Amino acid sequence: MTEEHEIIKELREEEKLGLLQSQSRSTYKEQHIPEEPLDKTPPEPSYKDEDDAKITRECIELGSIEEKYHTLFDNYAVAITLADDEERIVSWNKYAEELFNMTENELFMTQVSSLYPPEEWKKIRAENIRQKGNKFLTQCRMIRKNRGTSDVELSLCVLKGAEGKIVGSIGIIKDITKLKKSEKELIESEEKYKTIFENSAVAIMLANENGQIISWNNFTENLLGMTKEDLHLKPVESMYPAEEWQKIRSENIRQKGLQHHLETKMLKKNNEAVDVSLSVSVLKNHEGEIVGSIGVIEDNTESKQIKIRLEES
């Protein structure tokens, strides 16, 4: 984590002003948030001289800053907690109550360690954040009351006083449960694709925009008698006899976008020609530019031999 979160910068400024105290959100509201709506225009101040006017203006500006700070703090779409020097939660925003499924009374003065499964807390403590005094970013699981655990991204920052003494810490917790679920589904989907790709009874090749082979399955190596070294970045054109490549080019596949079951020949490593059925799909990016192609090649040798024997008979 190379940059401090904006809310951490705000809280550091509050720390310097001596405004971070061990108090609950309700106490904070009572001391800092006026009862009037935030958009209400303050009455014109009455003052005796220019010094009184300056002091009054500064007080009004400070009140506006505190109101904006608390609005920002309470409406962030991540959970923000402030703990004291004994690792007890003393302040938090609304989203924290929603994430942990806890009330204000349940959160106030709760030990931070109780919000994590034991193994997760042990992992966090092993980082020695309080001793290092640096920022810390990790992914872990946190406990939600009566709802099991949730995957979260946790950012911690230690707060120190003027003499370098630890006075508390800030925790910023982002719920990544849906993200983790999507990642898991993506991995499972990729594994299924990989299984199908590698075990298909046809050769499958992926070429880049320059017509060079960049990926293929096991059947491709078996069909053509080639190794990884033979196939990697091999020009697609070189895999066909010259007259067959001209026939393929005449189909204008790049313009059409696809071609199914084109009967042609491919060259093995020993230059032996093999009869194949070729299907090609052109790959394009979001701007419509060609970025590659996928070729599916079916070995037609046996069917060709059967056809010849039938014609002869």
In short:
The protein contains 13 helices and 10 strands. The protein is an alpha+beta fold and 313 residues long. The chain has a 5-stranded antiparallel sheet with strand order 2-1-5-4-3. Strands 7-6-10-9-8 form a 5-stranded antiparallel sheet, sandwiched between helices.
Layout of secondary structure:
Layout (H helix, E strand, L loop, with lengths): L5 H11 L8 H8 L17 H25 L4 E6 L4 E4 L1 H7 L3 H4 L10 H8 L3 H4 L3 E8 L5 E12 L5 E10 L1 H23 L3 E6 L4 E4 L1 H7 L3 H4 L10 H8 L3 H4 L1 E10 L5 E12 L5 E10 L1 H12 L1
Antiparallel strand pairs: 1-2, 1-5, 3-4, 4-5, 6-7, 6-10, 8-9, 9-10
Describe this entry's structure for a reader.
There is one protein chain. This protein has 2 domains: 6-32 and 76-179, PAS domain (Beta-Lactamase, 2-Layer Sandwich), CATH 3.30.450.20; 200-312, PAS domain (Beta-Lactamase, 2-Layer Sandwich). A 5-stranded antiparallel sheet has the order 2-1-5-4-3. With 313 residues, it is an alpha+beta fold. The chain has 13 helices and 10 strands.
Name of the CATH architecture of the largest domain: 2-Layer Sandwich
Our estimate of the beta-strand percent is 25-35%
Average pLDDT figure: 80
Ranges where pLDDT stays below 50 over 5 or more residues in a row are 18-40
Instruction: Kindly report the spatial arrangement of strands forming the biggest sheet.
Output: 2-1-5-4-3
Can you identify the CATH superfamily of the largest domain? PAS domain
Number of helices: 13
What is the CA-CA span between the terminal residues? 76 Å
Count of folded domains? 2
Q: Based on helices, strands and strand pairing, what is the structural class?
A: alpha+beta
**Roughly how many Å is the radius of gyration?**
33 Å
Shape call: elongated
